[in-house]
Predict the structure.
Amino acid sequence: MELKDIGDQFKDSYLIYNRRSTDDAENQRNSLVYQRQRNIDYAEREKLPLAKNLTIAGFCTNGVIDESHSAFKQEVELIITPEGSIQHKILRPKFLTLISLLQARKIKGVIFLCMDRASRNDQDLNVVTKLGDMGCDVRFVDASYEKNSSGKLHRRMDGVFAAHFSEVISEKVKNAQKKLRGERRCIYAAPVGYLDKGSNNKPLDPERAPIVKRIFELYATGNWSIRQLGKWARDQGLTKKPCRRKRTKEEIANNVDVASIPKIARPVDHKTIEYMLPNPFYIGKIKIGKNYEDSIAHQALIDRSLFFTVQDTLKKKRVSVYYIDKDFHTYREIAHCTCGRAYSPYIQKGIIYYRCRCKEGCDNGDQNLNESEITAAIQTILNKVHFTEEEKAEIERDAKGELAKISEHRDKTLDDLHAKQRTILADIDYIVQNKITLLRTGSMDAEGIMQEQRRLEDKLALVNKDITVYAESAPEMLKYVLTFSELVRDAGLHFEHALDNEKREIATLAFTELVFKDRQLVSYEAQDGFKALLQRKADTDSKKSEHTWDNLSQNQPPGSSGRTRTYNQLLTLRPNVTKGSGLYHHPRGVLRYLVSTAPPRL
């Protein structure tokens, strides 16, 4: 049966209304089963006819209405019509249908257990009162209201106390939450990578935390987009925390228990990564109001420097150089046109070509490349990486006198760096020791102190990095350069006979970008180590060599971030990108520069 089919057959019958107020198994006084039994016993005792033949899906069964909605919540806004009536919204759907049937006189009355089952707010109380004034028989099992002014007062008082009880509970919950926030506990669900064990215990998730940390590390490189990281995370098996889906309107109407719906761990997507990366929860912070404070409930998953590196990367344009779901091609995202756009691979008649959709106005006359042409260009460069015997002899002959100058320059620079390090440490210590004074005097606010401390820590990290670079002696650096040259002597030969995936690995170890125009290699960007060996010019002019020496010694910053890495790490890690001009300098003139930008230590 549907609502529209109800006629006058139930105009002398009663409906039973039960409303659940809690899911707590220890508080069963107002459970649906308890209310149903009490109301049926009352109807039999008072000989009230029930509409047992009335069953409407999503509303009632055999004349019994079971609803699982709060009776305390109410709409704040009121609508005043031009006719002078005031309207408000009733949030309980079954209760709304019930009063509609009562108003239309399609049923005679309704039975509630007590007043708080019918209403816990002033607006619904007025509706129940109006129905009684209209002649509808509204019965309560636990209370009897006389048909006089005392009975009306009694009914209003019960309604007021029902609303007051919910208001007191609401205040207690808010005060408890405020107290927990003041203790820096986490009263909300922890993000992916943590488990929920209470407001004061959010331990790391042993399955998800390592993957989440790796996501931060990958994004900090600047080579991944959020969408591609989402695909990568799914391939690693990362899922969201298990949770239950929301009940449908039909399930709510049929009182389907939430506990009966299984928890499902859904796979992550790019939106999950987008929410994850800027969340300070991963550095041990919790949100209290609009601010983030240190938490006592969980430990940091990543360090602050990594987190703020990720925040800086988020502010920049993010273009992924890694693609999870694209077919493998040897030189995808490596070959570029002079206009900056990449060559995309395609296959025609079994041959792999690369094509670039150039920007408007680009002067590249031929926008197609054969894969073999790219291979030949790379091999030509790799064949020139190592030193010739004449170059090594000349470097060794001039090394003794020139290395002394380099060592003196390094010592002076290292002293300057240590002085700079001491100054920064003193500034950080001042902020830490005088934080309260700065806040009280109004010199800086909390956000300003945090930003300044973060700026100094980043500055200190760069200085420490430079100090590490200068730690090695010049003779050791020269030895590394010469040894590295010997190791890459046969790089061109290995590249010629390598498999496609090996060619890509070699190409990305040596270069970050190859720029083509009219099917010819016009420039490239070399990686650390390879750059030092490629930037030398076969020119025997002594004066030109000395001039090059002076320019390099004055303009090129000595040191390399890769110096602290082992040679084995060089084969797997990508060093910092450096510009390769493609020019070759005389070995004697480039000696100081080679030592300054030596490849990673063996």
Remarks:
- Confidence is low (pLDDT under 50) at residues 23-28, 537-602.
- The chain has 21 helices and 14 strands.
